[in-house]
Amino acid sequence: MKSNASLFRALLALSLLTGCSSYRPTPAAFHEVLDQPYRLGAGDRVRVTVFEQDGLTNTYSVDQSGYLSFPLVGSVPARGHTAQQLEKEIADKLRQGYLRDPDVSVEIDRYRPIFVMGEVGAAGQYSYVPGLTVQKAVAIAGGFTPRANQGSVDITRDINGKVMTGRVLTSDPLLPGDTIYVRERLF
C-alpha cells in the first residue's frame, strides 16, 4: 500500500513537471545570425552618400515592402541586403544612363525598433542600439516586475524571412526587430 502511494506521488510530480515545461531549445540559427553581417529590413533608415552628387545624398527609409525609394532610379530592393549589397545595387542602377561611374556609400542611420512585453515595468517599443542585450532592454523598459521570471526570456526573431521563437538568457545579445517576452514565474 505504501509503495503504491509513493509511486502515485512520483508519477504526479513527473506529470506536473512535464506539463509545466513548454521549453523548446533555441534554434541553432538564433545564434548563427549574430555572426553574420546585418541585413536591412522594414523600418531601418540608411544614409546614402553619392560622392559629388549632393542632390542624391540623403537619408532614406526602408518601407514596409522592403524597398528604398531613391531619386532618378525609383524603388531599390533593400530587405535582406547588407549595406554593401545596397551600395552595389544603387550604383548599378545609377550607371544605367544617369552617372558614368557613381561612387556610393551606405551606412545605417537608425535601426528598426525592438519590442519588450510581459512582466516589465513599461512594455512597448524601444530604439535599438548596437550592443544591446536582453538585460539592457529590460532595464530600458522599466525593469522586471516582482512576478517576472528573471532567468530567461523568449525572443521572437525574423531570420531569413522565417519567424522563430526561442528561450535565451538575459545576457544574450539582441538584434533590431526582436520581440522580447518576459514570462511570469511559477512560484
TrEMBL record:
Keywords: Signal. Residues 35-108 form the Polysaccharide export protein N-terminal domain. Residues 114-164 form the Soluble ligand binding domain. It comes from the Bacteria. Pfam families: Poly_export (PF02563), SLBB (PF10531). InterPro entries: Poly_export, Poly_export_N, Soluble_ligand-bd. This is Polysaccharide biosynthesis/export family protein.
